[in-house]
Each structure stands twice: as structure tokens, then as C-alpha cells.
């Protein structure tokens, strides 16, 4: 079934949640030595063989991990869906349009940050989004906006014409106890509003074997993007083991 087909535009409640593996941090290890390995494409293929439904990469402007050649290699070799995350910078949107990716996730990017710290400010970026969203859409992939679970941002995301949002789960992942419960509730409300507005909903950032369960049970979510925790776990149990464990933690298999 083509989960990105036009008929699926309003989401497909009967489809199982999908696990998309972000392979950025395989490239982080390689780039630490400016070496040829480990290869994120080989890692992606092992993840696919173990049940990953798609592969995600973030091509950062500073090229700290994924390189342009990685995107091409992944496009040529993986058999599932390729989701390319990039900023709204003109150079990055041009590259994304030429990448042949199945999906694009527009993310905020700050050169000094250790990782993506928050969602896109869709309201402040409305002018650049008005150009980038239709351009990326015409290039053949489905566009998603990486947003915090903020209801005003979600209303603004719906107005851009992008079919998807990806809810930033970083704050949920980085809190505990009552605060985490409150963040989970924000994510639930955000997914509900997005669905009511006709958006399809993904989620990701900071998810791991321990915290993924409650997120995987949020209504209307289609796809979870998980990278750092899964790549780290693969050091101990291999790529296939890490994917299988995550699928169990997501409730996709027993
Ligand atoms: C947007 C996002 O959440 C991912 O890109 C993920 O965080 C991996 O990339 P970085 O660690 O470089 O942010
Ligand atoms: N968009 C989130 C993503 O791709 C993975 O984030 P993380 O699991 O590496 O934090």
C-alpha cells in the first residue's frame, strides 16, 4: 500500500504506526574521523531488513553528519521511504528539491545548537514557507513541518498547505514525572487538533526504548522518527536488534 498516495491525504486510521530510523548519528561517528565508515546507508539497509518502514536523514547546512553523497546513496539503495530533513535555507531547499526524497521535513536550524532544540516558528517563517512548501511539493515529495505541540503553530502549519506535521517530542523526552505527563497531554491535544484540521501527523526527537510507549499510543500518529537512541543501542545489539526492540516498545510486535 502506498501510504503517501493522494487518497491517503487525510490520514489512514487503520494503518499501523510506522518506525522510520534516523541514521544521522552513524554519519556522526564516521565524520568524527573523516573516515569512510561506518556507512549510514549500510546501517539503513540493516534497519530495513529488520522491519524499519523508512529512513530519515537531516542534511544540515554545516554538514556535521550526513553529507550530500549519503542522500544520493540512500536514494539509490534503500527500498523503503526516504525522509529528508532540512532547514528553510535556500541552498538546502534547492538540494532537497533535487534529492528524489519521498518526504521532506522542514526543521529550524541553528548552527550553534547540539541538536534541534525546538520546532519551526511557522508563524514567523510564513513568507519563506509560502515559497518552500509548494516548491518541495512540486518536486515530488510530501512536505512536513517539524513543530512543537503548540496549537497556534499547528493552525499556522495547516494554513501553509503542507500535508504533514511532525510533532517535536524533545521536551516530553527531556522531562520526568508530572511534567512529562503534561507534555504528553500537549502532544495528544496537538495531534487531535492537527487531525481535525486535515493534517497528517508524525512525531519524533529524543524518543527511546523507555519513553516511546506512551507516544506510540497517541491517536492519529502515523510515523515515529527515531535516531540517536536507536543508533546508540545498535552498538550493543546491532542495527537489527535495535530496530526489533524499538518495534516491540512501540507495540508493533510482541
Ligand atoms: C530534526 C531532528 O530532530 C533530527 O534531525 C534529529 O535531531 C537528528 O539530527 P541532529 O541531532 O543533528 O539534530
Ligand atoms: N525528527 C526527529 C528525528 O529524526 C530523530 O531524532 P532523534 O531520535 O535523533 O532525537
From TrEMBL:
InterPro entries: Aldolase_TIM (IPR013785), PyrdxlP_synth_PdxJ (IPR004569), Pyridoxine-5'_phos_synth (IPR036130)
Binding positions (1-deoxy-D-xylulose 5-phosphate): 24-25, 60, 65, 115
UniProt similarity note: Belongs to the PNP synthase family.
Classification via Pfam families: PdxJ
Site (Transition state stabilizer): 166
The name this protein goes by in its record: Pyridoxine 5'-phosphate synthase
Subcellular location, principal: cytoplasm
GO MF annotation terms: pyridoxine 5'-phosphate synthase activity
Keyword Lyase: no
NCBIfam families: pdxJ, PRK05265.1-3, PRK05265.1-5
Protein EC: 2.6.99.2
Catalytic activity: 3-amino-2-oxopropyl phosphate + 1-deoxy-D-xylulose 5-phosphate = pyridoxine 5'-phosphate + phosphate + 2 H2O + H(+)
Pathway(s) the chain acts in: Cofactor biosynthesis; pyridoxine 5'-phosphate biosynthesis; pyridoxine 5'-phosphate from D-erythrose 4-phosphate: step 5/5
GO biological process terms on file: pyridoxine biosynthetic process
Places the protein is found: Cytoplasm
Binding site for 3-amino-2-oxopropyl phosphate: 22, 33, 206, 227-228
UniProt-annotated catalytic positions: 58 (proton acceptor), 85 (proton acceptor), 205 (proton donor)
Keyword S-adenosyl-L-methionine appears in the UniProt entry: no
Subunit structure, as described in the record: Homooctamer; tetramer of dimers.
Role according to the record: Catalyzes the complicated ring closure reaction between the two acyclic compounds 1-deoxy-D-xylulose-5-phosphate (DXP) and 3-amino-2-oxopropyl phosphate (1-amino-acetone-3-phosphate or AAP) to form pyridoxine 5'-phosphate (PNP) and inorganic phosphate.
Taxonomic lineage of the native organism: Bacteria, Pseudomonadati, Planctomycetota, Planctomycetia, Planctomycetia incertae sedis
Keyword annotations from UniProtKB, A to Z: Cytoplasm, Pyridoxine biosynthesis, Transferase
GO cellular component: cytosol
Amino acid at each position: 500500500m502506498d501510504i503517501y498516495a493522494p487518497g491517503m491525504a487525510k490520514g489512514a486510521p487503520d494503518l499501523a504506526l510506522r518506525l522510520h530510523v534516523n541514521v544521522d548519528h552513524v554519519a556522526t561517528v564516521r565524520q568524527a574521523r573523516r573516515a569512510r565508515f561506518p556507512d549510514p546507508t549500510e546501517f539503513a539497509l540493516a534497519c530495513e531488513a529488520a522491519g524499519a518502514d523508512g529512513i530519515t536523514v537531516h542534511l544540515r547546512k554545516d554538514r556535521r553528519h550526513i553529507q550530500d553523497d549519503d542522500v544520493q546513496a540512500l536514494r539509490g539503495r534503500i527500498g523503503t521511504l526516504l525522509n529528508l530533513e532540512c532547514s528553510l535555507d535556500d541552498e538546502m531547499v534547492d538540494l532537497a528539491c533535487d534529492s528524489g526524497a519521498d518526504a521532506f521535513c522542514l526543521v529550524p536550524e541553528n548552527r550553534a545548537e547540539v541538536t534541534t532544540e525546538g520546532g519551526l516558528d511557522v508563524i514567523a517563517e510564513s513568507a519563506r514557507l509560502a515559497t518552500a512548501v509548494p516548491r518541495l511539493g512540486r518536486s515530488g515529495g510530501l512536505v512536513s513541518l517539524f513543530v512543537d505541540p503548540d496549537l497556534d503553530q499547528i493552525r499556522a502549519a495547516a494554513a501553509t498547505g503542507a500535508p504533514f506535521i511532525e510533532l517535536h517530542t524533545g521536551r516530553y523526552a527531556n522531562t520526568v514525572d508530572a511534567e512529562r505527563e503534561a507534555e504528553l497531554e500537549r502532544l495528544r491535544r496537538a495531534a487531535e487538533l492537527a487531525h481535525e484540521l486535515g493534517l497528517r501527523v508524525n512525531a519524533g526527537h529524543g524518543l527511546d526504548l523507555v519513553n516511546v510507549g506512551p507516544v506510540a499510543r497517541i491517536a492519529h500518529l502515523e510515523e515515529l522518527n527515531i535516531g540517536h537512541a536507536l543508533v546508540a543501542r545498535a552498538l550493543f545489539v546491532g542495527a537489527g536488534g535495535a530496530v526489533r526492540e524499538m518495534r516491540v516498545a512501540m507495540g508493533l510486535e510482541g
